[in-house]
């Protein structure tokens, strides 16, 4: 059995993630699975500051409305199924788990209120 | 292709927390060095290219972007010295940071890649030195550049081979009211 999350009444599939800076600060976040985001992880600026994530650089993102948005990129460490991964984080309004994080995993979602979200590593 | 042979690996790379790189931008001498490198990148102070002046920048990479007026080091230092210390690439606007990164891409990276076949690959570019790495994974590309050049952390422009934007996002989501 892989990582378990839940579907909310807002029709969001959420999974719990442990995100750390690599220097001791860690937070458990409830991240929305966003397959429209092809990055790894999005976090709010407030959470990025709380975690003290190191800045890696900058990038330009393409939004759904066709506009471009400059974003800072940060380094974080994400725990998924007892494995720690290096991740790149971009600024977002709330925690987002993108396709980069889900890569090489199988995702199963029961699309009902309270439905189960399962994330299992592909062998 | 990249300055080194690319390694095709998955998007995730396992790291131990102790592998995290230190913030290298707070040390005064480092900031000073950054400022001097920035000077060279812009082409300002290129008196070094004249036969009578073979200064410390002789071995540095070619300048990026539009030709800049030739002014001396003192002038540059005066222009970019702020109360908080010398200016570095960290102080650049997003637009200027992107312009430099994309100029380096056009000059150094594009001639070495198959833009159509490798359009999806990430390019991590140090906007100060022009060094870069290419990989299927943004994590691997940026990590490899920082492994090779630790000072690059914080001044990396990330893009794709085929696109100036690195990622797509459904929208800039907003928290619940």
Overall description:
- The complex is a heterodimer of chains A (123) and B (177).
- Chain A has 123 residues and is mostly beta strands.
- Chain A has a single domain (13-103), classed as Cathepsin D, subunit A, domain 1 (Beta Barrel), CATH 2.40.70.
- Helix content of chain A is 9%, strand content 56%.
- Chain A is built from 2 helices and 10 strands, in the order E-E-E-E-H-E-E-E-E-H-E-E.
- Chain A has helices spanning 45-51, 99-102, and strands at residues 3-7, 13-20, 26-33, 41-43, 54-63, 68-80, 83-91, 96-97, 105-109, 116-121.
- Chain A is globular, with a radius of gyration of 14 Å.
- The mean pLDDT of chain A is 94.
- Chain B has 177 residues and is an alpha+beta fold.
- Chain B is 28% helix and 13% strand.
- In chain B, a hairpin with a 2-residue loop joins strand 2 and strand 3.
- Residues 1-83 of chain B have low confidence and may be disordered.
- Classes of the chains: A mainly beta (123), B alpha+beta (177).
- At the A-B interface, strand 5, strand 6 and strand 7 of A face strand 1, helix 3, helix 4, strand 6 and strand 7 of B.
The average pLDDT of chain B is 67
The count of β-strands of chain B is 7
User: Beta-strand level of the residues of chain A, as a percent range?
Assistant: over 45%
Q: What's the SSE pattern of chain B?
A: EHHEEHEEHEE
Largest sheet of chain B: 3 strands, antiparallel
Structural class of chain B: alpha+beta
| Shape by Cα distribution of chain B | globular
For the record, the count of structural domains of chain A works out to 1
Quaternary structure annotation: heterodimer
The name CATH uses for the topology of chain A is Cathepsin D, subunit A, domain 1
Distinct helical segment count of chain A: 2
Order of helices and strands of chain A: EEEEHEEEEHEE
Cα-based radius of gyration of chain B, to the nearest Å: 18 Å
Which pair has the most extensive contact?
A-B, 47 and 44 residues
What is the fourth-level CATH superfamily of chain A?
Acid Proteases
Main sheet makeup of chain A: 6 strands, mixed, barrel
Counted beta strands of chain A:
10
- The percent of residues in helical segments of chain A reads under 10%
- The CATH first-level class of chain A comes to Mainly Beta
């Amino acid at each position: 059995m892989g990582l378990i999350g839940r579907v909310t009444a807002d029709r969001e599939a959420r999974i719990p993630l442990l995100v750390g800076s690599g220097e001791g600060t860690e937070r458990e976040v409830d991240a929305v699975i966003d397959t429209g985001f092809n990055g790894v992880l999005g976090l709010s600026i407030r959470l990025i500051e709380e975690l003290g994530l190191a800045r890696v650089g900058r990038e330009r993102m393409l939004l759904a409305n066709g506009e471009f948005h400059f974003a800072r990129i940060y380094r974080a460490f994400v725990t998924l199924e007892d494995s720690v991964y290096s991740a790149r984080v971009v600024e977002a309004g709330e925690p987002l788990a993108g396709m980069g994080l889900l890569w090489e995993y199988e995702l199963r979602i029961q699309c009902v209120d309270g439905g189960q979200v399962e994330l299992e590593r592909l062998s | 292709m990249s300055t080194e042979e690319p390694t095709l690996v998955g998007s995730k790379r396992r790291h131990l927390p102790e592998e995290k790189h230190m913030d290298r931008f707070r040390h005064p001498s480092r900031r000073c060095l950054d400022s001097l490198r920035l000077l060279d990148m812009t082409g300002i102070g290129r008196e070094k290219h004249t036969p009578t002046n073979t200064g410390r920048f002789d071995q540095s990479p070619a300048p990026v972007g539009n030709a800049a007026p030739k002014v001396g080091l003192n002038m540059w230092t005066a222009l970019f010295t702020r109360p908080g210390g010398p200016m570095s690439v960290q102080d650049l606007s997003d637009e200027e940071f992107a312009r430099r990164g994309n100029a380096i891409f056009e000059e150094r990276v594009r001639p070495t890649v198959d833009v159509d076949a490798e359009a999806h690959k990430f390019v991590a570019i140090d906007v100060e030195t022009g060094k870069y790495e290419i990989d299927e994974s943004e994590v691997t590309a940026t990590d490899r550049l920082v492994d090779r050049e630790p000072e690059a952390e914080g001044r990396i422009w990330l893009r794709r081979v085929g696109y100036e934007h690195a990622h797509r996002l459904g929208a800039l989501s907003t928290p619940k009211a």
